[in-house]
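Recall that a protein's primary structure is simply its ordered list of amino acids. Everything else, from secondary elements to tertiary packing, is in principle encoded there. The following example makes that idea concrete.
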Amino acid sequence: MKLLISILLLISATSFAQKSTEIVAQVGKKSITLEDFNKKYNEVKSQTINPPTKELFLEDLIRYEVGLQEAEKRGLQKDPVVLERLNQEMYKALLEKELGPQIQKIQVSEKEMQAWYAKNPELRTSHILIEFKPGANPQQIAEAKKRASEIFEEVKSSKRPFEELVKLYSDDALSKQAGGDIGWQSRVTLVPGYYEAAASMKVGEIKGLIESQFGFHIIKLTGRRSFENANKRQIRAAVFDEKRKQLFNDYFDKLKKSYSIKENKSALK
């Protein structure tokens, strides 16, 4: 009886092995086995709500192999663009392997969120923008600054509401109709110079000139939001991002010690 069971198991295993190595398509020099097909098809099924039929997926695999072999025949594996993409994929693969597990373990506590928010509160501002176009030359920037300075002097001395002055002078068409109000913003959503200036102000205070890539800003701080009312999801993401960056920094600080590196930062100026 035991011998019969052993024979049946052996036959079953042999049958399964033969079936798993059964070839479902031959594309030039490449054989696609049933085992390979099922593995890839099951991956696709687990990642999509509406997976293709097995017949359509097989056609996709055949096209993929035809494309690879054609690309190899044309020598694209030596193409600089392809090599650069390969380098990028290898870099990403290294980071996923070395840092991926650590990143998945990152935890963000309420206390850490509160500590981060104390230094990076959400602010509400209104502004007057005197813009200069991207690629503006020094003379055009100087002209914009001169105009911004004149407007700022008027803002400081005028008794008219800031919102009225916005409608008279601002080049920001989007916020102009709302009296310059750009809503609640954070360090994550504002350009650094604008945010730093606003964060140093008291509610109701007006400050200028603040330069950004968009032009010169005259800013009025209209609100500072408490932690209780802040966007917790955004705060958690910001803290998570800082922790992730620290992992990257620590990893590369250690890794760079194994390589000879020479920098010439003066060439950047």
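The radius of gyration is 31 Å. Residues 2-18 have pLDDT under 50 and may be disordered.
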